[in-house]
Backbone:
């Protein structure tokens, strides 16, 4: 892990122009596009929940300047993700999907009822588990061909989000380690997080499918093949999470972050070392190194 990755989490504010993104933006496959759209629908409220869960323990990290700085980076990154996925979700609403009605039900059930009935240490443990899941999906997004056929603006949005999930993957974990380092707490959070993600992701997908005009209900075979190919990696990632000595930064993913930034068209530049937001540059991915990076990330 490099100093840059460990010590500083950069908040970037790239701009995405989705004006010409089609409804079937992933591989011209409406079903596959909806699988990812469903995840986008639940992201912003979920990310605001992550921020609340970590901020609740400000008294625990405020005397640790290094961790406090990383928490600020984490909050900044998650805030930007929520903002950009809200923008993407507005496109879905503009296409006639009942996004607002879905989000109102989701907010009420997940955050007014379940969150308010869950103790603070388990809210944080749930956040830690979901951060592990999102950083695992981020590695998949950056190391497999799953996004190769995506519309450029969506691919850039998801690559940027994936990079930052990897960058801040240990922040909530490090706060939980100070609050309650027991494996039992981490495991309970994983159970809650898995249930929440499974239920609300599938409900969002069902809503999108029910209101689609194209008649397709499932992704095509190519997407299903991608999903099957990642199952061993996902299984390995779950097993690692339950190791007593697990830490999210056990694998050095700094090369993958650098490669992902190039892929997202956000080349690292000197201003990044200062931690200042910057605009993306027109710099397309160099795919030559992706195979090497994949081998090391999942090996
Ligand atoms: Fe995020
Ligand atoms: Fe995150």
Residues:
């Amino acid at each position: 892990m490099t100093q840059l990755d460990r010590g500083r989490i950069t908040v970037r504010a790239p701009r995405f122009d989705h004006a010409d993104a089609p409804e079937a933006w992933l591989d011209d496959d409406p079903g596959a596009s909806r699988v990812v759209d469903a995840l986008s629908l639940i992201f912003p409220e979920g990310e605001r929940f992550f921020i609340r869960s970590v901020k609740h323990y400000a008294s625990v990290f405020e005397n640790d300047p290094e961790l406090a700085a990383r928490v600020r980076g984490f909050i900044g990154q998650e805030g930007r993700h929520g903002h950009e996925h809200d923008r993407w979700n507005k496109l879905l609403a503009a296409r006639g999907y009942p996004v607002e009605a879905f989000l109102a039900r989701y907010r009420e059930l997940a955050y007014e009822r379940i969150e308010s009935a869950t103790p603070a240490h388990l809210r944080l443990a749930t956040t830690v588990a979901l951060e592990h899941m999102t950083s695992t999906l981020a590695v998949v997004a950056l190391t497999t061909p799953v996004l190769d056929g995506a519309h450029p603006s969506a691919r850039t949005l998801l690559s940027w989000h994936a990079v930052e999930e990897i960058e801040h993957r240990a922040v909530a974990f490090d706060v939980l380690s100070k609050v309650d380092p027991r494996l039992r707490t981490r495991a309970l959070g994983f159970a809650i997080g898995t249930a929440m993600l499974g239920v609300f992701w599938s409900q969002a997908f069902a809503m999108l499918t029910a209101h689609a005009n194209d008649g397709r209900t499932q992704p095509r075979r190519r997407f299903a093949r991608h999903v099957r190919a990642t199952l061993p990696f996902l299984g390995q990632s779950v097993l690692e999470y339950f190791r007593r000595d697990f830490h999210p930064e056990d694998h050095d993913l700094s090369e993958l972050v650098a490669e992902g930034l190039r892929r997202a068209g956000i080349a690292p530049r000197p201003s990044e070392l200062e931690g200042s937001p910057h605009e993306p540059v027109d710099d397309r991915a160099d795919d030559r190194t992706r195979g090497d990076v994949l081998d090391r990330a999942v090996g």
Observations:
- The chain has one domain: 23-298.
- The chain is about 70% helix and 0% strand.
